[in-house]
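<instruction>
Derive structure tokens from the sequence
<entry> Chain with its tokenised backbone below:
===
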Amino acid sequence: MSEYDHEALGLVAGLEIHQQLDTATKLFCDSPTVERDPAEADRDITRRLHPTKSELGELDQAALEESRVDREFTYLAYDTTCLVEEDDEPPRRVDEEALSVALQIAELLDVSVVDQAHVMRKLVIDGSNTSGFQRSILLGQDGAIETSDGVVSIEDLMLEEESAKRVEETDDGVVYSLDRLGVPLVEIGTGPDIRSPEGAKEAAERIGMLLRSTGAVKRGLGTIRQDVNVSIAEGARVEVKGVQDLAGIEDIVRGEVGRQAELLAIRDDLRERDASVGEVREVSDVFEDTDSGVIRGALDAGGKVTAVPLFDFDGLVGREIQPDRRLGTELSDHAKRHGAGGIFHTDELPAYGVTAAEVDELREAVDAGGTDAVAIVAADPETADLAIEAVAARAEAAIEGVPEETRGANDDGTTQYLRPLPGAARMYPETDVPPVEPDPSDVDRPELLDEKTDRYVESFGLDRGLAEQVAFGRRFPTFETAVERGVDPTFAASTLESTTTEIRRDGAPVENLTDDHFLAVFELVESGDLAKEGVPEVLSTLAEEPDLTAGEAVEAAGLSGVSDDEVREAVREVVERNADQVEAEGMGAFSGLMGEAMGALRGKADGEAVSDALREEIAKRS
């Protein structure tokens, strides 16, 4: 694919950042916000969702399209699931802790907080909420962040309930888990002020840093999601959902610019050829004796083959618009939305068991000539009809240019069609929750993580790299508590960051380690009951068996402290085993013997004590 001049193409981008808050309970009930294993579910709920009209009597087009896909939704419930999550009880209240954290975020984003916040219902069309809508609260508008490319405006800050977690897709529909449903979530929408892929990444990094500065947001995969809105001149606004990491934002913006540029080039070619889309037809007779496994399987199961002629599209359906994705892939995505496995088209045929003779007969059946293309779908009758109509509609859109739509992010930086862009008809008031009157004066501005880094360097004497690791890591509250209790700052910081990284690489499940585990281990070191050298082994033991106390972990690891006499005896034995080296090198043998002595004591003794004893023994022999 080509490199594109983003400025010349008129790139405009904006972000929607969704971040889960780390509160004790959910936004509208007292259920905990902890993740559960789907195997722990003790019951399930089955629903079929239908689109509803807004208060103005309008139907959202995205919801209408989704309703044409016949699917059943199953929700896994737990002993902690509340009736609100099951949609069997109205919401109880807006969680005060979540509101407080959201107001801190508003302060950091320089957002103007509303005087009175109303809860709205936002139509959910993918089944990820048992009620068919998500509750959302507009908290503030008109904020801003600074980037190297200038100010990026913050258009709105929303406090919302998180959707249910998708577990799996089945033949009948989708299975969701209710452990995540209702977790407080903030949604931050920027203005269309971003002009480059790098700028999009930087803006997302800045917002992410501000969010983590509260110390009250969840961390880990899936707890923060970025949606990106991208358009170019003559293109269209496209929302790309589900970008999981910051590096992916830059790739997605770059890829979407290229896709729209290629679609506009295809549009120009189609218009120059005076291309058009013909009528949908059934062409099952053409493939009556086919050897194509896909088509044969559909026909043998009672299905049919439908086709649409694409006049003067020849060669363009197979044109690449993103790496390994073509205009034909776009048509196929629309067919898949209606249950088809995909499409075949003449830019790629004969292939897949379809012969040249069948291609010729297909063209004749739909009155297609040599400059035309034909797309076909083989499926059950209802799916084949719906899917080929969707293909025809997408081909019509190709003549117009770039359609507005919602797309999903792929791991390789490309995107795929999900649904039309939602409109204003998806929002309507929630009548079960009274308005709230947020008071920004009730919260203090959090210290930013880069400010925290500076403080750790200046106040605690940390190396800047280590200070940044701790400040931007998830355990900075533990670090500050440890330092308040008199623990050496460098030791505390390196344990929380470097040591945990080392034992994770060795396979220890460090996610099981709690703040109390670390603080208890630090206390043992400070009291002299555990040598610093034994900390990695004790933490590894606690990670494997988190129900142990730190003292029990020391015992289990065989790291109970040793007396000074035992240290000297162990060092003496090491020196005696290496007597020839000591006599030859004197104190030059120290470095090599120090490692051996520490190994002999297995972390039971402090390194400084071992070092002193070793120097004395070497001096005696020299």
User: Anything to note?
Assistant: Residues 246-273 form the longest helix (28 residues).
